[in-house]
């Protein structure tokens, strides 16, 4: 194939002239196109212009000297003081860049102000109602400093936990960065979560402040957030609530502890020195579902997380200075933390953020935005792609999507059908599909397709340079190619979680199930080329539309209802959402199962945990399959539902 020139001209050609690429693509032979449609991208071309270059060479460089590898990346960022040691590995506890001093906002903001990025657009925001705002790096810097000064004026200090419960708006990003600026530990709670989820996260993290909005908007409907906060802070340590008031007439602030977001910024200085943070000081807590009990507060620290997210933006998402990056996640999830906010700002790219729903006002809205803003990197979830597939090609076809250069995916397996559609209909068979596997706990991408490497539909890809991944049995022995096993990561990496907030034992459990390995909780298969296919969770976490929920959380919400004695929930495969929740409920004597009661229970879960946790179906039963020690055997329920073999039943009680 002859669509190659010198590295520079190829780069220019890719980043500027996609139409020209399309024209040249049209001239390649049909045999070559057949190869493309089988998932074989013209790899050499992408490799030449990618930041990573040759995967094998980069991986070998990492294996030869992992610490040197990471220190070279870390050196691309600015530190107030250099590290004494790159890694202190005291299994299973790691410290990265020990002795180093930094502040992630210095690298996200200040660092760019002395460069040509000073007046570059940092954020483009599109609201649910179609309104837009554009904020440059310099403006963002000033707003973050002002808000940080506001927080200081309330007495917020380094190490304080601050809970952020806001929709996807520039104010949310300002609030998050302002916390990091002063060294406060942010604890962002997805605004789709309900009262109980918010309350338990505030309590567990002992947050002193809550930053919220009066409302979020979805499909033109106003959703009240403030009243949820009012109830969630009862019996907690919250001292002040800062409210971003978006609606008119203005929401009244009644109590003494409530302050308006912009009043807090008024007359504040446009500069504040970044708090000097130790590399290992906490940066944030983010809650994720566990297999048992309450959600786990995953703790990330300043230095390592900064290096990991910067690195993966550069080499996995292959960011270039001219990119417009759109990650469609919500900052309430790790994807939003790492790839809406921190990574892209560290890299100094322009990012699009949006409150929009993919099918409102119509299923063309996202493609309209891609065309309007010239999005080059689109990072979304399989559930969204499958939803678009259902609406048909006619929607994306209305828009010019030539600006797209990289299509990325996260959250759950990208099934081959969705891969093909994403690649052909959105990418016009010329953009790589980067399927990124990682977790809240890992902080950054771990196993993924890399630009310039062969793509295999259905496979996430290989471990990135810097990461060692394997598929093993319970004893830690590598599985043969083609055999299903446990996905593990060997050894530490900079952006790994440092602990579970207030529960070191829960942290250790990730590392002690199989000696020396971090057990991720997913089942996977490796092929002969080392490509990893993710099969799904091996534990009681259900992934619904890319959001993970613990069965335990939903079950305990159900049991809280006065009519429920016991409950078990399982995930049932769904063509669009990946999974939906089915609940089995035993009622307390005197209650009888009816449609009305089922609706009431669904509503109860919605109010407690939020809309994403709502069971799609509730079945009233007399008993549940259990082990002799009393543990519910969800796999038996699932096998029954799916008409499959339930497997070993020797531990089941009579
Ligand atoms: C699943 C999201 C297959 C997986 C970044 C993991 C995936 C869990 C992929 C973590 C992918 C994430 N292919 N499965 N590309 N990405 N998962 O913590 O089960 O919200 O363990 O982090 O999502 O979800 P979390």
TrEMBL record:
GO terms for molecular function: 3-hydroxypropionyl-CoA synthetase activity; acetate-CoA ligase activity; AMP binding; ATP binding. Its EC number is 6.2.1.1. The keyword Ligase applies. It is an enzyme of class 6 (ligase). Transmembrane segments: none annotated. CDD domains: ACS. Keywords: ATP-binding, Ligase, Nucleotide-binding. Residues 553-631 form the AMP-binding enzyme C-terminal domain. Residues 55-108 form the Acetyl-coenzyme A synthetase N-terminal domain. NCBIfam families: Ac_CoA_lig_AcsA, PRK00174.1. Belongs to the ATP-dependent AMP-binding enzyme family. This is Acetate--CoA ligase. The lineage of its organism: Archaea, Methanobacteriati, Methanobacteriota, Stenosarchaea group, Methanomicrobia.
């Amino acid at each position: 194939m002859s669509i190659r020139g010198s590295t520079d001209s190829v780069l220019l050609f890719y980043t500027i002239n996609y139409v020209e690429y399309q024209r040249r693509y049209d001239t390649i032979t049909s045999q070559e196109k057949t190869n493309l449609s089988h998932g074989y991208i013209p790899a050499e071309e992408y490799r030449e212009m990618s930041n990573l270059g040759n995967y094998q060479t980069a991986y070998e460089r990492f294996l030869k000297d992992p610490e040197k590898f990471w220190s070279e990346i870390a050196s691309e960022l600015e530190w107030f003081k250099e590290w004494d040691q790159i890694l202190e590995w005291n299994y299973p506890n790691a410290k990265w860049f020990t002795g180093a001093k930094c502040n992630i906002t210095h690298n996200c903001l200040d660092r760019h102000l002395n460069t040509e990025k000073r007046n570059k657009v940092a954020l483009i925001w599109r609201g649910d109602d179609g309104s837009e705002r554009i904020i440059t790096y310099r403006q963002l810097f000033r707003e973050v400093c002002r808000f940080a000064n506001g927080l200081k004026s309330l007495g917020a200090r380094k190490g304080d936990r601050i809970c952020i419960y806001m929709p996807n708006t520039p104010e949310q990003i300002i609030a998050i960065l302002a916390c990091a600026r002063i060294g406060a530990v942010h604890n962002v709670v997805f605004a789709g979560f309900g009262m109980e989820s918010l309350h338990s996260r505030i309590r567990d993290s002992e947050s002193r402040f809550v930053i919220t909005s009066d409302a979020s908007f979805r499909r033109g409907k106003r959703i009240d957030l403030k009243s949820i906060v009012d109830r969630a802070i009862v019996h907690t340590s919250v001292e002040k609530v800062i409210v971003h008031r978006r609606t008119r007439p203005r929401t009244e602030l009644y109590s003494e502890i409530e302050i308006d977001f912009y009043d807090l910024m008024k007359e504040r200085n446009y500069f504040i020195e970044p708090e000097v943070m130790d590399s290992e000081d906490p940066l944030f807590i983010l809650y994720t579902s566990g297999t048992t009990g309450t959600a786990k507060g995953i703790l990330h620290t300043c230095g390592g997380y900064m290096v990991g997210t910067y690195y993966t933006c550069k080499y996995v998402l292959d960011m270039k200075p001219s990119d417009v990056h759109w990650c469609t996640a919500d900052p309430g999830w790790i994807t939003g933390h790492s790839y809406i906010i921190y990574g892209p700002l560290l890299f100094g790219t322009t990012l699009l953020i949006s409150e929009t729903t993919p099918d409102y006002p119509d299923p063309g809205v996202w493609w309209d935005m891609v065309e309007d803003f010239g999005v080059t990197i689109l990072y979304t979830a399989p559930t969204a792609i499958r939803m678009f597939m259902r609406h048909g090609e006619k929607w994306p076809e209305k828009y010019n999507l030539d600006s797209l250069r990289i299509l990325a995916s996260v959250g759950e397996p990208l099934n081959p059908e969705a891969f093909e559609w994403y690649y052909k209909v959105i990418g016009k068979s010329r953009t790589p599909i980067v399927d990124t596997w990682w977790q809240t706990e890992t902080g950054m991408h771990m196993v993924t397709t890399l630009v310039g490497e062969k793509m295999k539909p259905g496979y996430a890809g290989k471990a990135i340079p810097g990461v060692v991944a394997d598929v093993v049995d319970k004893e830690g022995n590598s599985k043969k190619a083609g055999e299903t096993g446990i996905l593990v990561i060997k050894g530490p990496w900079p952006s790994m979680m440092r602990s579970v907030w207030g529960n070191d034992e829960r942290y250790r459990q990730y590392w002690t199930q199989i000696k020396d390995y971090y057990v991720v909780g997913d089942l996977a298969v490796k092929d002969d080329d080392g490509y990893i296919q993710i099969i799904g969770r091996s534990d009681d976490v259900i992934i619904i539309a890319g959001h993970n929920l613990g069965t335990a959380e939903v079950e305990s919400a159900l049991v809280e209802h006065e009519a429920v004695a016991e409950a078990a929930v399982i995930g049932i495969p769904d063509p669009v959402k990946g999974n939906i929740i089915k609940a089995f409920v035993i009622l307390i004597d005197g209650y009888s199962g009816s449609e009305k009661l089922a609706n009431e229970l669904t509503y109860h879960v919605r109010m407690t945990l939020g809309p994403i946790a709502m069971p799609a179906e509730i079945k009233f039963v007399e008993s549940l399959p259990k082990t002799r020690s009393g543990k519910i055997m969800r796999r038996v329920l699932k096998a029954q539902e799916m008409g499959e073999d339930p497997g070993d039943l020797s531990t089941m009680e009579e």
